[in-house]
Amino acid sequence: MSWALLFLAGILEIGWAVGLKYTEGFTRFWPTVATVAAMIVSLTLLGLAVRGLPLGTAYAIWTGVGTVGTAVLGMALLGEPANALRLGCIALIVGGIVGLKVLH
User: Fold this and answer.
1) Average pLDDT for residues 38-46, to the nearest whole number?
2) Angle (CA) 55 73 40, round 5°
């Protein structure tokens, strides 16, 4: 159950990170509400996940999932560059996430 909570927390981290762009500096009401709600739920789920997982592992995976998802959505939605070096670096993060899961 802790892994599922952690994965969902990571997905919500992606949501609030991407949501920050759409708040336009917290000047748009509904995007701001959605972003802040995603932040709260993401941190709450992370807190629940660390009950059953080591803190370092959980935090690294949470930030890794958030980083990879945000980078991918930045490329897909916001026209950020998707060159080979950038994609290679994202693959390294994914490898680290998988490694931490396997070693747990």
Assistant:
1) 98
2) 45
